[in-house]
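Fold it.
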Amino acid sequence: MARVCVVGAGAVGLSTALCIKLQHPSLSLTIIADRFLDTTTSDGAGGLFRPDDQFIQGVDKSLLRKWCQTSFDYFNNLIFSNAAAEAGISQVSGYQLFNDSRPDPSYKDIIYNFRHLTKHELDIFPDHYK
């Protein structure tokens, strides 16, 4: 029997473990982590979907886009399923503000309603946001 170990019990580690197990049900899967539940980075981040290539270096952009689309579709299907309440997930919208100008993220065409704030909308926030 094949044995696989996933390091990390946050959103990425657990979703990776789930995908592996769903694809290969007969393998032995172990999850190792130094933190669990509310002590993981994922808990504090709220599971925000933000897979930017600036954080994931060394991966072909077309492959990263495919991963992003697959992940978004999976999360989106889960959000609108009967299991959403039990999983404790929901869809939320919001703004991502920066102190500097940045290129558009690689996932801008995957998520819903990506756009830049208008000058009027940006004026609501402190002056240092771009």
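DSSP finds five helices and two strands in the chain.
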